[in-house]
Description:
Layout: H1 3-9, H2 23-33, E1 46-50, H3 52-67, H4 87-101, H5 109-117, E2 127-134, H6 139-158, E3 162-166, H7 173-180, E4 186-195, H8 213-216
Antiparallel strand pairs: 1-2, 2-4, 3-4
Helix pairs in contact: 1-6, 2-6
Amino acid sequence: xxxVDAIRSRKSVRQFTDKPVSKEVIEEILxxxxxxxxxxxxxxxxxxxxxxxxLKTLLETIxxxxxxxxxETPEYNVYPPDLKDPYRTRxxxxxxxxxxxxxxxxxDTAGKLRQLAKNxxxxxxxxxxxxxxxxxxxxxxxxxxxMFLQNIxxxxxxxxxxxxPQEAWARWPNTVSKHLELSDDEMMFCGLALGYxxxxxxxxxxxSERASLSEFxxxxxxx
Length: 223
């Protein structure tokens, strides 16, 4: 697969098949992804890869918490408070597109919550990854982590896999940290679902839009 094809075909998949992904394939993905740019060569990421019973145990724990009405306090804002336009509108549009696609009306709060809860099943993916950083790190290192994540997602496409990066896991910092046995100096940033796309799932037809270059590029010094 050419790089341009991997970039254009990468998307956030929200329904996977249960086809397993071998450890060897995951290792190959991570071996290449680690060459992401990193300021000062800090390589400020730690990855936890969960499959099988270990993944099942975590997901069951989360499900038990949700059924009991328990909640945790996120360690960071996934989106800025009082999000302004055009960002607020973009978020609203893609959210509505998703719910329209799966037949959840705007007023169906329970339906929306059921879909949200699927985040904490990794959308049925056989592999769940968590990305962890030392609390000493700053904004620049989060940028490094983002480039590392992008490499993983593009390498996954080359292997015929799909992914879904999930900051939604920031809602469960205590439970995830306990399960991963993180130290007090470590912070879980996000999760990532990895597996084979369920091509028959309606929700996977969603392809979010991107702004035209005229909306975000300023050209200077060109004739």
